């Protein structure tokens, strides 16, 4: 599969590059756009402040420009937290998207969004301070109404960014379970 993998508010960190390498080792082609242009942050607060300085429209513009040269190939959009939000926005606007892999995050859904059976897989902590139960329930129902085929996996007791081995949120067991299921999802997309 061709995968466009977007980073979290921490920026394009070694953990994101390691995730991309893991996907490549499984036979996928992966791009990791740097929406923060080289900046990385130790805390969510610093990263969010930087994201706010850039602005949502500029962040999405950078993401679209990064994905545009490859979208004809039929991309799987993927991302971590903030990057998942970006990936969701792009996937719902790309009629050639092959799938959407969300790690630790979701996004608002545009009122006019519609997809044809887009495979979507979400992996999120339970509980997650950024992805509350009420929000996730409403998001799941709305995604179904716009035509997405959604699977949700919750990981009890894990921290928000539990797949990042460089953060205090890291949960090795939950991370390995996530990667096992996510790689199966990508393999199934390859076969479809």
From TrEMBL:
Domain of life: Bacteria
Key words of the record: Hydrolase
Example GO molecular function: hydrolase activity
InterPro entries recorded: AB_hydrolase_fold (IPR029058), Dienelactn_hydro (IPR002925), Dienelactone_hydrolase-like (IPR051049)
All residue ranges annotated as the Dienelactone hydrolase domain in the record: 3-187
Name of the featured protein: Dienelactone hydrolase family protein
Organism annotation: Streptomyces mexicanus
Lineage of the organism: Bacteria, Bacillati, Actinomycetota, Actinomycetes, Kitasatosporales
């Amino acid at each position: 599969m061709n995968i466009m993998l977007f980073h979290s508010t921490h920026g394009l960190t070694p953990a994101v590059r390691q995730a991309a390498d893991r996907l490549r080792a499984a036979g996928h082609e992966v791009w990791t756009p740097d929406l923060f242009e080289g900046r990385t942050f130790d805390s969510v607060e610093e990263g969010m402040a930087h994201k706010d300085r850039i602005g949502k429209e500029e962040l999405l513009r950078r993401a679209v420009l990064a994905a545009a040269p490859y979208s004809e190939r039929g991309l799987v959009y993927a991302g971590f937290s903030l990057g998942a939000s970006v990936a969701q926005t792009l996937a719902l606007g790309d009629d050639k998207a092959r799938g959407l892999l969300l790690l630790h995050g979701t996004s608002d859904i545009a009122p006019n969004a519609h997809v044809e059976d887009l495979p979507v897989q979400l992996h999120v902590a339970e509980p997650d301070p950024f992805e509350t139960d009420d929000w996730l329930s409403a998001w799941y129902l709305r995604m179904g109404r716009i035509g997405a085929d959604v699977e949700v996996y919750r990981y009890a007791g894990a921290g928000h960014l539990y797949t990042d081995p460089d953060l205090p949120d890291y949960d090795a067991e939950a991370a390995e379970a996530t990667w096992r299921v996510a790689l199966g999802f990508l393999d199934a997309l390859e076969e479809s």
